[in-house]
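sanity check this record:

:::
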Amino acid sequence: MGSAFDTVATTTPVSGDDGDGQEPVARLTGSIGGVINALPAAIYTVDAAGRLTSFNEAAAVLWGRRPALYQEEWCGSWRLFRSDGTPLPHAECPMAVALREGRAIAGAEAMAERPDGSRVSFLAYPTPLRDAEGRITGAVNMLVDVTERKVGLLSEARLSAIVESSHDAIISKDLNGIIATWNNGAQALFGYTAEEAIGQPMTLIIPPDRLQEEPAILDRIRSGELVDHFETVRRRKDGSLVDISLTISPVRDLGGRIVGASKIARDISERRLAEQQQQLILREMSHRIKNLFAIAGSIVSMNARVASSAAELAQSVRQRLDALTRAHALTRPGLLDDDASADRDTSVRGLLDAILLPYLAGETGSGKVILKGEDLPVGGAAVSNLALVFNEFATNAAKYGALTADGGQVVVSWTVEGDKLRVLWRESGGPPIEQEPLRRGFGSTLADRIIIGQLGGTLYRDWQPDGLRITLELDRQRLG
Protein backbone atom coordinates (compact mmCIF):
# COMPACT_ATOMS: atom_id res chain seq x y z
CA MET A 1 0.00 0.00 0.00
CA GLY A 2 1.48 3.41 -0.98
CA SER A 3 2.37 6.14 1.49
CA ALA A 4 1.00 9.66 1.48
CA PHE A 5 4.13 10.77 -0.41
CA ASP A 6 4.81 8.40 -3.34
CA THR A 7 6.35 9.06 -6.78
CA VAL A 8 5.65 7.58 -10.17
CA ALA A 9 8.11 8.01 -13.07
CA THR A 10 6.62 8.60 -16.49
CA THR A 11 8.10 9.54 -19.87
CA THR A 12 7.43 13.05 -21.24
CA PRO A 13 8.99 14.85 -24.25
CA VAL A 14 11.22 17.70 -23.07
CA SER A 15 12.59 20.59 -25.16
CA GLY A 16 15.76 22.55 -24.50
CA ASP A 17 17.26 19.60 -22.60
CA ASP A 18 20.60 17.86 -22.81
CA GLY A 19 18.94 14.45 -23.05
CA ASP A 20 17.43 12.60 -25.99
CA GLY A 21 14.05 14.31 -25.66
CA GLN A 22 12.50 11.48 -23.63
CA GLU A 23 13.20 11.94 -19.93
CA PRO A 24 11.53 10.23 -17.00
CA VAL A 25 9.60 12.89 -15.10
CA ALA A 26 8.51 12.38 -11.53
CA ARG A 27 4.82 12.74 -10.80
CA LEU A 28 4.28 13.05 -7.08
CA THR A 29 1.28 10.99 -6.02
CA GLY A 30 -0.60 10.41 -2.83
CA SER A 31 -2.47 12.86 -0.63
CA ILE A 32 0.56 15.10 -0.18
CA GLY A 33 1.89 14.70 -3.70
CA GLY A 34 -0.95 16.64 -5.28
CA VAL A 35 -0.38 19.51 -2.89
CA ILE A 36 3.37 19.60 -3.55
CA ASN A 37 2.87 19.60 -7.31
CA ALA A 38 0.69 22.69 -6.94
CA LEU A 39 3.11 24.57 -4.68
CA PRO A 40 5.08 27.51 -6.19
CA ALA A 41 8.15 26.48 -4.19
CA ALA A 42 10.68 24.18 -5.85
CA ILE A 43 10.61 20.73 -4.18
CA TYR A 44 12.47 17.56 -5.09
CA THR A 45 13.45 14.26 -3.49
CA VAL A 46 16.46 11.93 -3.60
CA ASP A 47 17.02 8.39 -2.41
CA ALA A 48 19.56 7.34 0.21
CA ALA A 49 22.31 7.36 -2.43
CA GLY A 50 21.45 10.93 -3.43
CA ARG A 51 19.87 10.06 -6.80
CA LEU A 52 16.96 12.27 -7.86
CA THR A 53 13.67 10.46 -7.51
CA SER A 54 11.15 13.26 -8.09
CA PHE A 55 10.70 16.99 -8.58
CA ASN A 56 7.75 19.31 -9.06
CA GLU A 57 7.18 21.79 -11.85
CA ALA A 58 8.47 24.74 -9.80
CA ALA A 59 11.81 22.93 -9.42
CA ALA A 60 12.07 22.42 -13.18
CA VAL A 61 11.38 26.12 -13.73
CA LEU A 62 14.00 27.15 -11.16
CA TRP A 63 16.64 24.85 -12.69
CA GLY A 64 15.66 25.71 -16.28
CA ARG A 65 15.78 22.01 -17.17
CA ARG A 66 14.31 18.61 -16.33
CA PRO A 67 17.03 16.36 -14.95
CA ALA A 68 17.04 12.59 -15.57
CA LEU A 69 15.61 10.72 -12.61
CA TYR A 70 17.75 8.05 -10.93
CA GLN A 71 20.70 9.21 -13.06
CA GLU A 72 21.59 12.62 -11.62
CA GLU A 73 22.58 13.17 -8.01
CA TRP A 74 21.99 15.69 -5.24
CA CYS A 75 20.37 18.47 -7.25
CA GLY A 76 18.86 19.10 -10.68
CA SER A 77 20.81 22.31 -11.29
CA TRP A 78 22.97 22.60 -14.40
CA ARG A 79 25.76 24.20 -12.39
CA LEU A 80 26.00 25.38 -8.80
CA PHE A 81 27.86 28.30 -7.22
CA ARG A 82 28.35 29.50 -3.70
CA SER A 83 26.95 32.91 -2.70
CA ASP A 84 30.38 34.49 -3.28
CA GLY A 85 30.36 33.25 -6.90
CA THR A 86 32.85 30.40 -6.56
CA PRO A 87 31.90 27.01 -8.10
CA LEU A 88 30.04 24.59 -5.83
CA PRO A 89 30.40 20.88 -6.72
CA HIS A 90 27.10 18.97 -6.57
CA ALA A 91 28.64 16.55 -4.04
CA GLU A 92 29.12 19.53 -1.67
CA CYS A 93 25.70 21.08 -2.14
CA PRO A 94 23.30 21.43 0.84
CA MET A 95 21.41 18.20 -0.08
CA ALA A 96 24.66 16.18 -0.16
CA VAL A 97 25.72 17.62 3.21
CA ALA A 98 22.31 16.86 4.76
CA LEU A 99 22.45 13.19 3.64
CA ARG A 100 26.10 12.77 4.56
CA GLU A 101 25.69 14.27 8.05
CA GLY A 102 22.14 12.99 8.62
CA ARG A 103 20.78 16.38 9.61
CA ALA A 104 18.37 18.98 8.28
CA ILE A 105 19.81 22.23 6.96
CA ALA A 106 17.76 25.42 7.08
CA GLY A 107 18.33 28.23 4.60
CA ALA A 108 21.68 27.38 3.03
CA GLU A 109 22.35 29.97 0.31
CA ALA A 110 23.61 29.08 -3.18
CA MET A 111 23.21 30.01 -6.84
CA ALA A 112 22.07 27.78 -9.70
CA GLU A 113 23.11 28.43 -13.29
CA ARG A 114 20.62 27.38 -15.96
CA PRO A 115 21.63 25.98 -19.36
CA ASP A 116 20.87 29.39 -20.93
CA GLY A 117 23.49 31.04 -18.67
CA SER A 118 21.07 32.86 -16.38
CA ARG A 119 21.51 32.47 -12.64
CA VAL A 120 19.10 32.26 -9.76
CA SER A 121 19.86 32.69 -6.06
CA PHE A 122 18.06 30.34 -3.69
CA LEU A 123 17.87 29.15 -0.11
CA ALA A 124 17.92 25.36 0.38
CA TYR A 125 16.07 23.46 3.14
CA PRO A 126 17.14 19.79 2.75
CA THR A 127 15.72 17.32 5.30
CA PRO A 128 16.66 13.60 5.53
CA LEU A 129 13.76 11.05 5.43
CA ARG A 130 13.91 8.02 7.73
CA ASP A 131 12.05 4.75 7.98
CA ALA A 132 10.39 3.38 11.09
CA GLU A 133 13.73 2.11 12.38
CA GLY A 134 15.42 5.47 11.88
CA ARG A 135 17.46 4.57 8.83
CA ILE A 136 17.86 7.29 6.17
CA THR A 137 15.86 6.34 3.09
CA GLY A 138 16.30 9.56 1.18
CA ALA A 139 15.70 13.29 1.59
CA VAL A 140 13.39 16.06 0.50
CA ASN A 141 14.58 19.56 -0.36
CA MET A 142 12.75 22.84 -0.82
CA LEU A 143 14.45 25.62 -2.80
CA VAL A 144 13.23 29.18 -2.22
CA ASP A 145 14.03 31.63 -5.04
CA VAL A 146 15.48 34.79 -3.49
CA THR A 147 16.84 36.36 -6.66
CA GLU A 148 14.54 39.37 -6.55
CA ARG A 149 15.22 39.90 -2.88
CA LYS A 150 18.98 39.71 -3.49
CA VAL A 151 18.68 42.21 -6.33
CA GLY A 152 16.57 44.45 -4.11
CA LEU A 153 19.06 44.22 -1.25
CA LEU A 154 21.93 44.92 -3.64
CA SER A 155 20.11 47.94 -5.05
CA GLU A 156 19.30 49.11 -1.55
CA ALA A 157 22.94 48.68 -0.51
CA ARG A 158 24.14 50.59 -3.55
CA LEU A 159 21.62 53.36 -2.94
CA SER A 160 22.59 53.52 0.72
CA ALA A 161 26.28 53.77 -0.22
CA ILE A 162 25.53 56.56 -2.70
CA VAL A 163 23.47 58.45 -0.13
CA GLU A 164 26.06 58.12 2.62
CA SER A 165 28.98 59.10 0.37
CA SER A 166 27.16 62.04 -1.22
CA HIS A 167 28.47 65.52 -0.45
CA ASP A 168 24.90 66.80 -0.77
CA ALA A 169 22.62 66.69 2.25
CA ILE A 170 20.06 63.91 1.69
CA ILE A 171 17.23 63.81 4.23
CA SER A 172 13.88 62.04 4.43
CA LYS A 173 10.89 62.97 6.55
CA ASP A 174 7.33 61.81 7.15
CA LEU A 175 4.21 63.77 6.27
CA ASN A 176 4.29 65.44 9.67
CA GLY A 177 7.70 66.93 8.87
CA ILE A 178 9.61 64.65 11.28
CA ILE A 179 13.14 63.75 10.14
CA ALA A 180 13.50 60.02 9.39
CA THR A 181 16.97 59.76 7.82
CA TRP A 182 20.02 62.03 7.83
CA ASN A 183 23.18 61.32 5.82
CA ASN A 184 26.78 62.41 6.31
CA GLY A 185 26.30 65.25 3.83
CA ALA A 186 23.50 66.63 6.00
CA GLN A 187 25.73 66.48 9.06
CA ALA A 188 28.53 68.30 7.20
CA LEU A 189 26.17 70.99 5.89
CA PHE A 190 24.01 71.64 8.96
CA GLY A 191 26.26 70.52 11.84
CA TYR A 192 23.80 68.10 13.50
CA THR A 193 24.64 64.40 13.79
CA ALA A 194 22.09 61.79 12.71
CA GLU A 195 21.40 61.02 16.38
CA GLU A 196 20.62 64.69 17.04
CA ALA A 197 18.45 65.19 13.96
CA ILE A 198 16.42 62.00 13.47
CA GLY A 199 13.08 62.24 15.23
CA GLN A 200 13.20 66.05 15.32
CA PRO A 201 10.90 68.30 13.24
CA MET A 202 12.35 69.73 10.03
CA THR A 203 11.96 73.18 11.59
CA LEU A 204 15.19 72.33 13.43
CA ILE A 205 17.09 73.81 10.47
CA ILE A 206 14.57 76.43 9.28
CA PRO A 207 15.11 80.07 10.30
CA PRO A 208 12.16 81.68 12.15
CA ASP A 209 11.38 84.02 9.27
CA ARG A 210 10.97 81.07 6.86
CA LEU A 211 8.88 78.68 8.96
CA GLN A 212 5.92 79.17 6.61
CA GLU A 213 7.86 77.31 3.89
CA GLU A 214 7.56 73.91 5.59
CA PRO A 215 3.72 73.52 5.60
CA ALA A 216 3.62 74.81 2.02
CA ILE A 217 6.19 72.20 0.97
CA LEU A 218 4.31 69.40 2.79
CA ASP A 219 1.07 70.37 1.04
CA ARG A 220 2.78 70.09 -2.34
CA ILE A 221 4.29 66.72 -1.42
CA ARG A 222 0.90 65.34 -0.28
CA SER A 223 -0.48 66.21 -3.70
CA GLY A 224 2.33 64.22 -5.33
CA GLU A 225 4.21 67.25 -6.62
CA LEU A 226 7.97 67.37 -7.12
CA VAL A 227 9.62 70.50 -5.72
CA ASP A 228 12.63 71.09 -7.95
CA HIS A 229 15.54 73.48 -7.31
CA PHE A 230 13.83 75.56 -4.65
CA GLU A 231 16.39 78.12 -3.42
CA THR A 232 16.11 79.18 0.19
CA VAL A 233 18.07 79.71 3.40
CA ARG A 234 18.55 77.25 6.26
CA ARG A 235 20.11 77.49 9.72
CA ARG A 236 23.09 75.48 10.92
CA LYS A 237 23.56 74.13 14.43
CA ASP A 238 25.86 77.05 15.28
CA GLY A 239 23.14 79.51 14.25
CA SER A 240 24.78 80.60 11.01
CA LEU A 241 22.71 80.73 7.83
CA VAL A 242 23.48 78.92 4.60
CA ASP A 243 22.06 79.40 1.10
CA ILE A 244 20.81 76.09 -0.32
CA SER A 245 19.00 74.67 -3.34
CA LEU A 246 16.35 72.05 -2.45
CA THR A 247 14.92 69.23 -4.53
CA ILE A 248 12.06 67.47 -2.74
CA SER A 249 10.33 64.30 -3.96
CA PRO A 250 7.35 62.32 -2.57
CA VAL A 251 8.15 58.92 -1.01
CA ARG A 252 5.57 56.18 -1.64
CA ASP A 253 4.99 52.82 0.07
CA LEU A 254 4.49 49.53 -1.79
CA GLY A 255 0.84 50.38 -2.24
CA GLY A 256 1.69 53.66 -3.96
CA ARG A 257 0.52 55.86 -1.08
CA ILE A 258 2.60 58.95 -0.31
CA VAL A 259 4.09 58.47 3.16
CA GLY A 260 6.82 61.12 3.25
CA ALA A 261 9.39 63.06 1.29
CA SER A 262 13.05 62.90 0.43
CA LYS A 263 15.11 66.08 0.26
CA ILE A 264 18.39 66.81 -1.44
CA ALA A 265 19.95 70.05 -0.22
CA ARG A 266 22.95 71.56 -1.97
CA ASP A 267 25.05 74.38 -0.53
CA ILE A 268 24.99 77.27 -3.02
CA SER A 269 26.77 79.80 -0.79
CA GLU A 270 29.81 79.94 -3.06
CA ARG A 271 27.61 80.39 -6.11
CA ARG A 272 25.68 83.19 -4.41
CA LEU A 273 28.96 84.83 -3.39
CA ALA A 274 30.26 84.52 -6.94
CA GLU A 275 27.05 86.09 -8.26
CA GLN A 276 27.42 88.97 -5.82
CA GLN A 277 31.06 89.41 -6.79
CA GLN A 278 30.07 89.39 -10.44
CA GLN A 279 27.43 92.05 -9.83
CA LEU A 280 29.97 94.11 -7.89
CA ILE A 281 32.48 93.84 -10.72
CA LEU A 282 29.87 94.78 -13.30
CA ARG A 283 28.84 97.81 -11.25
CA GLU A 284 32.46 98.75 -10.78
CA MET A 285 33.13 98.44 -14.52
CA SER A 286 30.14 100.63 -15.30
CA HIS A 287 31.24 103.12 -12.66
CA ARG A 288 34.79 103.22 -14.02
CA ILE A 289 33.74 103.65 -17.63
CA LYS A 290 31.57 106.62 -16.70
CA ASN A 291 34.39 108.06 -14.63
CA LEU A 292 36.97 107.63 -17.40
CA PHE A 293 34.87 109.65 -19.83
CA ALA A 294 34.27 112.34 -17.22
CA ILE A 295 37.94 112.47 -16.25
CA ALA A 296 39.06 112.58 -19.89
CA GLY A 297 36.82 115.61 -20.38
CA SER A 298 38.18 117.18 -17.21
CA ILE A 299 41.77 116.65 -18.35
CA VAL A 300 41.04 118.32 -21.68
CA SER A 301 39.36 121.28 -19.93
CA MET A 302 42.16 121.69 -17.39
CA ASN A 303 44.90 121.62 -20.03
CA ALA A 304 43.00 123.84 -22.47
CA ARG A 305 43.10 126.67 -19.93
CA VAL A 306 46.91 126.68 -19.82
CA ALA A 307 47.96 125.40 -23.26
CA SER A 308 49.26 128.05 -25.72
CA SER A 309 48.71 125.98 -28.87
CA ALA A 310 46.80 122.98 -30.20
CA ALA A 311 50.03 120.97 -30.35
CA GLU A 312 50.83 121.75 -26.73
CA LEU A 313 47.28 120.85 -25.76
CA ALA A 314 47.46 117.53 -27.63
CA GLN A 315 50.81 116.63 -26.05
CA SER A 316 49.66 117.58 -22.56
CA VAL A 317 46.38 115.67 -22.88
CA ARG A 318 48.22 112.62 -24.23
CA GLN A 319 50.63 112.69 -21.26
CA ARG A 320 47.75 112.98 -18.82
CA LEU A 321 45.82 110.11 -20.46
CA ASP A 322 48.95 107.94 -20.38
CA ALA A 323 49.27 108.70 -16.68
CA LEU A 324 45.60 107.86 -16.24
CA THR A 325 46.21 104.48 -17.89
CA ARG A 326 49.08 103.75 -15.50
CA ALA A 327 46.99 104.76 -12.50
CA HIS A 328 44.11 102.61 -13.70
CA ALA A 329 46.44 99.61 -14.00
CA LEU A 330 47.32 99.97 -10.32
CA THR A 331 43.69 99.48 -9.31
CA ARG A 332 43.44 96.04 -10.91
CA PRO A 333 46.96 94.60 -11.28
CA GLY A 334 47.08 91.21 -12.96
CA LEU A 335 43.34 91.16 -13.65
CA LEU A 336 43.62 90.50 -17.37
CA ASP A 337 46.95 88.66 -17.45
CA ASP A 338 49.54 87.09 -15.19
CA ASP A 339 51.78 90.14 -15.12
CA ALA A 340 54.18 90.19 -12.20
CA SER A 341 52.92 93.65 -11.30
CA ALA A 342 50.06 91.95 -9.52
CA ASP A 343 52.40 91.27 -6.59
CA ARG A 344 54.71 94.28 -6.70
CA ASP A 345 55.31 96.58 -3.76
CA THR A 346 55.31 100.37 -3.76
CA SER A 347 55.05 103.23 -1.25
CA VAL A 348 52.33 105.63 -0.16
CA ARG A 349 54.00 108.49 -2.06
CA GLY A 350 54.63 106.39 -5.17
CA LEU A 351 51.02 105.26 -5.14
CA LEU A 352 49.64 108.79 -4.76
CA ASP A 353 52.00 110.12 -7.45
CA ALA A 354 50.71 107.56 -9.93
CA ILE A 355 47.03 108.09 -9.02
CA LEU A 356 47.07 111.92 -8.97
CA LEU A 357 49.35 112.60 -11.93
CA PRO A 358 46.54 112.43 -14.57
CA TYR A 359 44.66 115.27 -12.87
CA LEU A 360 47.54 117.76 -12.85
CA ALA A 361 48.21 120.51 -15.33
CA GLY A 362 51.78 120.66 -14.06
CA GLU A 363 54.09 118.56 -11.90
CA THR A 364 53.27 117.40 -8.38
CA GLY A 365 53.96 120.26 -5.98
CA SER A 366 52.96 123.01 -8.39
CA GLY A 367 50.08 123.97 -6.14
CA LYS A 368 47.23 121.83 -7.53
CA VAL A 369 48.26 118.79 -5.49
CA ILE A 370 50.53 118.71 -2.47
CA LEU A 371 51.79 115.44 -0.96
CA LYS A 372 53.32 115.46 2.52
CA GLY A 373 54.56 112.49 4.50
CA GLU A 374 57.37 109.97 4.97
CA ASP A 375 57.90 107.30 2.33
CA LEU A 376 56.05 104.35 3.87
CA PRO A 377 56.13 101.00 2.00
CA VAL A 378 52.90 99.30 0.87
CA GLY A 379 52.86 95.54 0.14
CA GLY A 380 51.51 94.02 -3.08
CA ALA A 381 48.36 92.71 -1.43
CA ALA A 382 47.27 96.21 -0.36
CA VAL A 383 48.46 98.21 -3.40
CA SER A 384 45.40 97.61 -5.59
CA ASN A 385 43.00 98.21 -2.68
CA LEU A 386 44.53 101.57 -1.75
CA ALA A 387 44.84 102.49 -5.42
CA LEU A 388 41.10 101.95 -5.84
CA VAL A 389 40.33 104.15 -2.84
CA PHE A 390 42.66 107.02 -3.80
CA ASN A 391 41.46 106.78 -7.41
CA GLU A 392 37.87 107.28 -6.18
CA PHE A 393 38.90 110.31 -4.13
CA ALA A 394 40.81 111.82 -7.06
CA THR A 395 38.03 111.08 -9.54
CA ASN A 396 35.44 112.81 -7.37
CA ALA A 397 37.76 115.78 -6.90
CA ALA A 398 38.18 116.04 -10.68
CA LYS A 399 34.44 115.65 -11.37
CA TYR A 400 32.88 117.67 -8.55
CA GLY A 401 35.53 119.01 -6.16
CA ALA A 402 38.69 121.05 -5.92
CA LEU A 403 40.31 119.86 -9.17
CA THR A 404 37.45 121.30 -11.23
CA ALA A 405 38.45 124.91 -10.39
CA ASP A 406 41.51 126.92 -11.43
CA GLY A 407 42.35 127.77 -7.85
CA GLY A 408 41.45 124.39 -6.42
CA GLN A 409 43.92 122.40 -4.40
CA VAL A 410 44.22 118.90 -2.94
CA VAL A 411 46.58 118.35 -0.02
CA VAL A 412 47.27 114.76 1.00
CA SER A 413 49.28 114.27 4.19
CA TRP A 414 50.04 111.13 6.13
CA THR A 415 51.70 110.32 9.44
CA VAL A 416 52.59 107.17 11.34
CA GLU A 417 51.34 107.08 14.91
CA GLY A 418 52.44 103.88 16.61
CA ASP A 419 51.19 100.98 14.52
CA LYS A 420 48.63 103.16 12.72
CA LEU A 421 48.88 105.03 9.42
CA ARG A 422 46.76 108.17 9.40
CA VAL A 423 45.97 109.80 6.03
CA LEU A 424 44.27 113.20 5.67
CA TRP A 425 42.80 114.22 2.28
CA ARG A 426 41.87 117.94 2.18
CA GLU A 427 40.28 119.81 -0.72
CA SER A 428 39.94 123.58 -1.01
CA GLY A 429 39.23 126.22 -3.62
CA GLY A 430 36.61 124.20 -5.43
CA PRO A 431 32.85 124.78 -5.75
CA PRO A 432 31.34 125.64 -2.36
CA ILE A 433 29.63 122.76 -0.55
CA GLU A 434 26.16 123.62 0.70
CA GLN A 435 25.33 120.29 2.29
CA GLU A 436 26.41 116.68 2.53
CA PRO A 437 25.23 114.65 -0.49
CA LEU A 438 21.88 113.00 0.15
CA ARG A 439 22.75 109.86 -1.81
CA ARG A 440 25.86 107.71 -1.52
CA GLY A 441 27.29 106.70 -4.87
CA PHE A 442 28.90 103.42 -5.76
CA GLY A 443 32.38 104.89 -5.40
CA SER A 444 31.76 105.87 -1.77
CA THR A 445 30.35 102.42 -1.03
CA LEU A 446 33.34 100.77 -2.68
CA ALA A 447 35.81 102.87 -0.67
CA ASP A 448 34.05 102.04 2.60
CA ARG A 449 33.98 98.36 1.73
CA ILE A 450 37.73 98.31 1.05
CA ILE A 451 38.95 100.42 3.98
CA ILE A 452 36.57 99.05 6.61
CA GLY A 453 35.76 95.58 5.31
CA GLN A 454 39.01 94.45 3.69
CA LEU A 455 41.73 96.49 5.39
CA GLY A 456 40.06 96.73 8.81
CA GLY A 457 40.50 100.48 9.06
CA THR A 458 38.29 103.54 9.52
CA LEU A 459 37.12 106.20 7.06
CA TYR A 460 35.49 109.53 7.93
CA ARG A 461 34.18 112.24 5.56
CA ASP A 462 33.67 115.84 6.67
CA TRP A 463 31.79 118.02 4.15
CA GLN A 464 33.09 121.53 4.96
CA PRO A 465 31.79 124.54 2.94
CA ASP A 466 35.26 125.21 1.49
CA GLY A 467 35.99 121.57 0.62
CA LEU A 468 35.84 117.92 1.56
CA ARG A 469 37.98 116.43 4.33
CA ILE A 470 38.61 112.67 4.40
CA THR A 471 40.45 110.89 7.22
CA LEU A 472 41.74 107.32 6.95
CA GLU A 473 43.25 105.21 9.72
CA LEU A 474 44.87 101.89 8.82
CA ASP A 475 46.83 99.22 10.65
CA ARG A 476 50.37 99.23 9.27
CA GLN A 477 50.52 95.44 9.39
CA ARG A 478 47.59 95.25 6.99
CA LEU A 479 49.61 97.29 4.48
CA GLY A 480 52.54 94.88 4.44
Summary: The radius of gyration is 44 Å. Confidence is low (pLDDT under 50) at residues 1-31, 334-343, 361-366. The domain at 166-267 is CATH 3.30.450.20 (Beta-Lactamase). DSSP finds 13 helices and 21 strands in the chain.
